[in-house]
Amino acid sequence: MHPPVPAGGAPGDASASGGQYGEAVFPPGRAGEDERIDLGALAYDELTIARLRELGAGPGWSCLDVGAGTGSVARRLLGELGVTRVLAVDRDVRFLSGRPQPGLDVLEADISAPGFDPGRFHLVHARFALMHLPTRQQLMARLGELLVPGGVLVLGDAVDLTTDLAPTSPYTRAMQAMWQGLHDTIGTDVSWTPRYPQMLRGLGLVSVAAEIHVPALLPGSAISRFWTETWTRAREAMTATGLVDDADIDEAIRYLDSPDCADLSPGLITAWCRRPGAGTPHR
Fold first, then answer.
1. Residue 17 has pLDDT above 80, yes or no
2. pLDDT in tens, 143-165
3. Strand 267-274 to strand 147-159: parallel, antiparallel, or no bridges (unpaired)?
4. DSSP string, the chain
5. What is the residue-averaged pLDDT of the chain?
6. DSSP states of 57-94 as a string?
7. Cα 24 from chain centroid?
């Protein structure tokens, strides 16, 4: 499972509305879902891998990748950064288990389950996962506890800085309907994500920092194609809000692929920190 509503699915925890990512919306068994996830990876993986490299991920590190999706980050940790081991966790691992790789272990699990304790790691990474889970603050604390002393926690989620402020367009109406529909269906919430640094510091973690990346909406770009696929698959939830109908969504999709598109995409906020103590190897 997995990216805004990007790739990297939410690996567990029912929402207040009773639904879950991968069940009520974005089921992994639907044809092309892995391709939708990979479009999100194309938009954000370079940024994520660059940040993990900057934080020192490399030989000797044991890593946990939560909501690993198709495994793009896990595989690049092994192949490009040379970490020793990655445990890739998701509620549905069909996109992970079909491509074995030395150093890659796969675990099908719900991270919100009381007994979830897969070990201790130099790096714990989760992208586009906590935004779909109502117990996100408790899960942040739990993920921090899975670090060795000095270990690094890197969390990323969607941040939407403009949809509510931008002039109304087919695109902004569709985006508003998507967020509302996903909130109503599976409890997705991105309103809190700009507070990531303060939340991590409040858990007693140290060396806290954060950055935001917003990919350009260009015709045919990975992020534009990602939103097209996401709206197509979330159409029922979007129209149920009453904010848009099918014709509105179709118009928004055409707009995304048009040279007239002049809007800002939601982006990725990445926050990172360390568990107090020493012990994690640095490059």
1. no
2. 999 999 999 999 999 999 888 88
3. antiparallel
4. ------SS---S---TTS--BTTTBS-TTSTTHHHHHHHHHHHHHHHHHHHHHHTT--TT-EEEEET-TTSHHHHHHHHTS--SEEEEEES--HHHHTS--TTEEEEE--TTSTT-----EEEEEEES-GGG-TTHHHHHHHHHHTEEEEEEEEEEEEE-SSTTTSPP-HHHHHHHHHHHHHHHHH----TTGGGHHHHHHHTT-EEEEEEEE-----TT-HHHHHHHHHHHHTHHHHHHTTS--HHHHHHHHHHHTSTT------EEEEEEEE-SSS-----
5. 91
6. --TT-EEEEET-TTSHHHHHHHHTS--SEEEEEES--H
7. 17
Residues 101 and 73: beta-carbon distance below 8 Å: no
Residue type, 41: A
Q: What confidence tens digit (pLDDT) does each residue in 62-104 have?
A: 999 999 999 999 999 999 999 999 999 999 999 999 888 999 9
More confident residue, 232 or 19: 232
Among 252, 213, 212, 211, CA closest to 229: 252
Query: Residue 28 above 50 pLDDT?
Result: yes
Dihedral pair phi/psi, residue 202, rounded to 5°: -65, -20
Question: How far is Cα of residue 20 from the mean position of the Cα atoms in its chain?
Answer: 15
Predicted local distance difference test score (pLDDT) of residue 18: 57
Residue 21 has pLDDT above 90, yes or no: no
pTM tops 0.85, yes or no: yes
Average pLDDT over residues 50-65: 98
Select from 225, 200, 195 the least CA-distant residue to 212.
Answer: 195
